[in-house]
Design a protein that fits this description.
Elements lengths: L1 H7 L7 E2 L5 H11 L11 E6 L1 H17 L4 H9 L6 E7 L9 H21 L3 E5 L7 H6 L7 E11 L20
Antiparallel strand pairs: 1-5, 2-3, 3-5, 4-5
């Protein structure tokens, strides 16, 4: 029951600081991600784990993309600083493999499950986290810098660290608005 209660209280936390998960915890997060559902064993995931200067490198890529797209100086600086919102950022990419029985969407969903599993595991470890995407996840400059193929997809950026504020669980969502039951 304790596990179910934990899952029912899922939340995102955008106010993050040091410390973030350390090397052993990052290894454990990746091991958990690699347990995501994977039709035909395609392993359609790629993870770019960024700490320290790795976050600066991602910031440079994001800033370049915003500048190329005509963003003003304030938007460029904001993009540059986005990876600095947390001590650890994991970019999760769906690496597409042509397969008769496993369409593109299933492979993207598998990568999404991997990301969600890592976020939940980080919460269980006592860290806060948030899954972010945004227009830069689909930007050609960013995709090229991360060596993505045409059908690859950035599923999201997982920001992890220590929460700076107490979390507040979402209000319950009325199931009847989103579920129908067939007897």
């Amino acid at each position: 029951m304790q596990d179910l209660e934990f899952l029912s209280q899922r939340y995102s936390c955008s106010k993050l600081t040091e410390p973030g998960p350390g090397p052993a915890q990052i290894k454990q997060l990746l091991d958990i991600a690699l347990r995501a559902p994977d039709h035909a064993g395609l392993k359609p995931w790629r993870f770019i784990v960024m700490t320290g200067q790795g976050r600066v490198r991602l910031g440079d890529i994001l800033a370049k993309a915003v500048k190329i797209n005509g963003g003003d100086d304030a938007k460029v600086i904001k993009a540059q600083n986005m990876p600095m919102r947390a001590p650890l950022v994991i970019t999760v990419i769906a690496k597409y493999t042509e397969h008769d029985k496993v369409p593109w969407i299933e492979q993207v969903q598998s990568a999404g499950c991997a990301l969600f599993s890592m976020q939940q595991a980080a919460l269980a470890m006592g860290f806060g986290g948030i899954w972010r995407t945004g227009e830069l996840a689909r930007d050609d400059t960013v995709r090229e810098a991360l060596s993505l193929d045409v059908e690859d997809e950035i599923v999201g950026y997982l920001y992890l660290g220590t929460q700076t504020t107490a979390h507040s669980c979402r209000k319950p969502i009325p199931q009847q608005e989103y579920a129908e039951f067939w007897d």
